[in-house]
């Protein structure tokens, strides 16, 4: 980055202010019955299957937000990182989904033709709207909960109960508990925190609103798969 924020502001990082502002909702992610059941392996297969199908659709749209991100910066290191995130989302996570798809007898066509459930649709519209029309700090804020919450959930679940080798969702747990995945959230937080110094109060208030909305959708995503959400 060509600029350095003054030391005084770095003591109160924006990313921490964003999360501290909504701590109870943050905490409720790891307490959601879907997450608990995913961690201890009791999650019914139907719910996991529903989740995996919806998540494959979600990740396709998340991939596109990284493409938009490259258009909002001239910093080569950032452009390179967004390109890597784009490819990783497409390849690493898609691989996880395809392995689960195979295990559950879901073909790539099944995975492609499943319609988005209401929450997947709403969450991805939220992300894409900000990706298309927002600033880079707004985009980083919108995608931060998805990287940060999954790393925390993965770490929490592996930490409280290391999965046995026959745990049905072991691959999922190991993917999100990995240091590689954690690094995604860390990088996004650092970039956002560096830019925070240049934001006025109004702009920062907007980021709090975006962060809250994305965090709410993260909770709703678990809830959608727990309840097998349907359109009316
Ligand atoms: C809904 C959702 N949020 C975050 C992640 C992590 O990439 C994911 N795979 N799915």
TrEMBL record:
Pfam families: TENA_THI-4. Pathway: Cofactor biosynthesis; thiamine diphosphate biosynthesis. Keywords: Hydrolase, Thiamine biosynthesis. Its EC number is 3.5.99.2. GO terms for cellular component: cytosol. Residues 23-227 form the Thiaminase-2/PQQC domain. One of its GO terms (molecular function) is thiaminase activity. Transmembrane segments: none annotated. It catalyses: thiamine + H2O = 5-(2-hydroxyethyl)-4-methylthiazole + 4-amino-5-hydroxymethyl-2-methylpyrimidine + H(+); 4-amino-5-aminomethyl-2-methylpyrimidine + H2O = 4-amino-5-hydroxymethyl-2-methylpyrimidine + NH4(+). InterPro entries: Haem_Oase-like_multi-hlx, Thiaminase-2/PQQC, Thiaminase_II, Thiamine_Salvage_TenA. Signal peptide: none annotated. SUPFAM superfamilies: Heme oxygenase-like (SSF48613). The keyword Metal-binding does not apply. The keyword Heme does not apply. GO terms for biological process: thiamine biosynthetic process; thiamine diphosphate biosynthetic process. Catalyzes an amino-pyrimidine hydrolysis reaction at the C5' of the pyrimidine moiety of thiamine compounds, a reaction that is part of a thiamine salvage pathway. Belongs to the TenA family. PANTHER family: BIFUNCTIONAL TH2 PROTEIN, SI:CH1073-67J19.1-RELATED. This is Aminopyrimidine aminohydrolase. It comes from Dictyobacter aurantiacus.
């Amino acid at each position: 980055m060509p600029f350095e924020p003054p030391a005084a502001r770095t003591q109160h990082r924006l990313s921490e202010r964003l999360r501290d502002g909504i701590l109870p909702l943050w905490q409720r992610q790891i307490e959601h019955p879907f997450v608990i059941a995913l961690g201890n392996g009791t999650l019914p297969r139907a719910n996991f299957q529903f989740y995996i199908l919806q998540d494959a659709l979600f990740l396709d749209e998340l991939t596109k937000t990284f493409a938009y991100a490259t258009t909002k910066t001239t910093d080569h290191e950032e452009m390179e990182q967004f390109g890597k995130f784009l490819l990783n989302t497409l390849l690493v996570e898609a691989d996880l989904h395809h392995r689960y798809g195979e295990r559950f007898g879901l073909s790539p066509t099944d995975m492609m033709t499943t319609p988005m459930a209401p929450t997947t649709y709403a969450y991805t519209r939220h992300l894409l709207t900000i990706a298309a029309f927002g600033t880079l700090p707004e985009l980083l804020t919108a995608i931060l909960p998805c990287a940060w919450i999954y790393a925390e959930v993965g770490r929490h679940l592996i930490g409280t109960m290391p999965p046995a080798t026959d745990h049905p969702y072991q691959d999922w747990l190991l993917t999100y508990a990995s240091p590689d995945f954690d690094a995604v959230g860390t990088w996004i937080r650092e970039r956002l925190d560096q830019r925070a110094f240049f934001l006025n109060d109004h702009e920062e208030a907007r980021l709090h609103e975006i962060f809250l909305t994305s965090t709410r959708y993260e909770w709703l995503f678990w809830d959608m798969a727990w309840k097998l959400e349907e359109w009316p």
